[in-house]
Write a structure and sequence with these properties.
By secondary structure, the chain is mainly alpha-helical. Among the domains are: 53 residues, no CATH class; 53 residues, no CATH class. The protein contains 9 helices and 2 strands; from the N terminus they run αβααααααβαα. A two-stranded antiparallel ribbon has the order 1-2. It is extended and about 80 Å long.
Length: 182
C-alpha cells in the first residue's frame, strides 16, 4: 500500500525497517498499481529458504526469564519441538490449545496469565518501529488534530454536528428523490 503512504505525504525508511524486524526483507508494494509484486514474490521465496531469523520482539527481563524457563521444560519433554519460544509464549498466555497439545506441568514457573503484558509489550515494540521508520507522520497527524479540535469543540462541536446532519438530510431527500419520481 505504498501508494497510500505516498498520497498521505509519508515515507517509510526501507533501510531501517528490515533492521528493526530482525532482517526480514521489506518490499514496497502497491497492489492497485501492480508494482513491486515480482520483487515481493522473489523475497518471499528467498526468505522462506533461509528459515527463521531469530528473536525480533524482546520482552521485559521478567517475562524473558519466564520464557527461558518454559523453553527449558518444553525442550526436556518435547526435544524435537520446533518454535520453542512461540510455544513458551503461548503457555504464558494460557493458550488452551497449545497446553492440550503439549501437556506439561509449569505451575512452578507460571503464576498467572501474562497475555495482557505480552500484548502491551508487542504494541510498545510496534510503536517503536513506527516512530523509527515512519517519516512525516506528524504533518498528517497535525491536520487530523485540527479537524478534531473543531468537531469536538465544546461550543462549536454541536452546531457543526447538527449542520452536517442537516446537510445529509437535505441531500438525501432533495438529491436522492428529485421531484416527479413519486
Amino acid at each position: 500500500m505504498m501508494d497510500i503512504v505516498e498520497d498521505r505525504g509519508m515515507e517509510i525508511d526501507l533501510h531501517r525497517l528490515p533492521e528493526m524486524l530482525g532482517n526480514i526483507p521489506v518490499v514496497p508494494v502497491s497492489a492497485r498499481k501492480r508494482t513491486g509484486l515480482d520483487v515481493l514474490m522473489h523475497a518471499v521465496v528467498h526468505h522462506y529458504e533461509e528459515g527463521p531469523q531469530g528473536v525480533v520482539v524482546t520482552y521485559t527481563p521478567r517475562i524473558e526469564n519466564k520464557i527461558s524457563k518454559v523453553e527449558t521444560v518444553l525442550k526436556a519433554h518435547y526435544g524435537k519441538l520446533k518454535n520453542l519460544r512461540w510455544h513458551a509464549i503461548k503457555f504464558l498466555e494460557y493458550d488452551e490449545e497449545v497446553a492440550n497439545d503439549h501437556p506439561v506441568d509449569l505451575s512452578n514457573i507460571i503464576d498467572h496469565n501474562y497475555e495482557k503484558e505480552i500484548i502491551n509489550e508487542k504494541y510498545d515494540y510496534i510503536e517503536g518501529v513506527i516512530h523509527e521508520c515512519l517519516v512525516n507522520k506528524e504533518q498528517k497527524a497535525a491536520m487530523t488534530d485540527k479537524i478534531d479540535a473543531y468537531l469536538t469543540h465544546p461550543f462549536w462541536g454541536v452546531p457543526l454536528f447538527l449542520g452536517i446532519m442537516a446537510l445529509v438530510f437535505f441531500l438525501t431527500f432533495t438529491v436522492g428523490f428529485p421531484e416527479g419520481i413519486f
